[in-house]
Amino acid sequence: MAMTIGMSFPRECPASAVTEFAQRLEAGGIDELWLVEDCFFTTAPPLAAAALSTTERLTVGLGILPAVARTAAITAMEIATLASLAPGRVVGGIGHGIQSWMAQMGAATTSPLTTLDEVISTVRRLLRGETVTFQGREVTLDEVRLTHVPDPVPAVLAGVGGPKSLDLAGRVADGVILGGPSTVPHCRAARQAGHDRESGWQLETFVTMAVAADARDAYRQMAPIVAENLGSVGFRHLPFVDELRRRHEADGLDGIVGMPRDWWLQIGAIGTRDDAVEHLALLEAEGVTGAAFFPAPDLETARGQIDDVIAIAAAR
Predict the structure, then answer these.
(1) Looking at 36-179, which runs of residues are DSSP E strands?
(2) Cα–Cα distance for residue pair 211/167, rounded to 1 Å
(3) What are the structural domain ranges in the chain?
(4) pTM, whole model, 2 decimals?
(5) Rounded Cα–Cα distance for residues 311 and 30 (Å)
(6) Which residues does residue 175 pair with via DSSP β-bridges, in sequence order?
(7) How far is CA 280 from the centre of its chain?
(8) Which fold has domain 4-211+273-315?
(9) Which alpha helices (H) appear in 150-204, and where do they start and end?
(10) How far apart, in whole angstroms, are the C-alpha atoms of residue 17 and residue 7?
(11) For the segment 105-140, what is each residue's pLDDT rounded down to a tens digit?
(12) CB 18 within 8 A of CB 47
């Protein structure tokens, strides 16, 4: 099947804007809306309920629920409730959460990997209608069964990026949702995590986005973000990352702005709309099943980027 196209709802935007985003994306033929849950902005499930209630076709993804912010049973109930409101239109996403944020609210775990394993495994069992008794390191359930089992059962993706977490996702999740900024080589590495799984294994990625009539305007806009992420997990697989660091050290942001177009295409939908289309083709060639554009944090800018996403999707 063709790769789905979506857009993320910026965490900085007021919750009241989510229905506008959902309705405009659906009207423009976009497949998915992904809802960020970062501390301490907005929570994803109520945003999802609002988006689902005002659309008929749009798939809504929870991207990404921290594993320790809720108990496994409550996380399953939240996903099941949304999936019952809009059958077949909900995708769950569960990740480690930023550990410093988890510590701030007293929910830090000594073993994020084990916690994610236990949470995703038990949530998926509950969503399938099983009665679950489980005594783990972080999750305890005693004959828990959901009263309202969703049909169809929604996919639960692991919101991870590092190699150990990707290996875990390959074993226990229905797929992966890569938070941003990710890159084409990072998607390639993530796809390997599910190489032994059935064909329904999903690989979603948030796509770094900046488009302009003049590609260099987009490059200048994104150069500070690239500089901030030169040491990130999403960039580590870039074959030219060492050279890019040297350019930055020698010439600052100008060294990043001036890197070759092919390098920009490996990093994101950055440049013209045609460049964005080419980036999507590179992702699809690596087995990405869904790409969600990550807009600017400013509400008015993000509103304008909805039109860009619709145009880019139509041009594929």
Answers:
(1) 59-62, 65-66, 90-95, 132-135, 140-144, 156-159, 175-178
(2) 34
(3) 4-211+273-315
(4) 0.95
(5) 10
(6) 202
(7) 15
(8) TIM Barrel (3.20.20)
(9) 163-172, 184-193
(10) 14
(11) 998 899 999 999 999 999 999 999 999 999 999 999
(12) yes
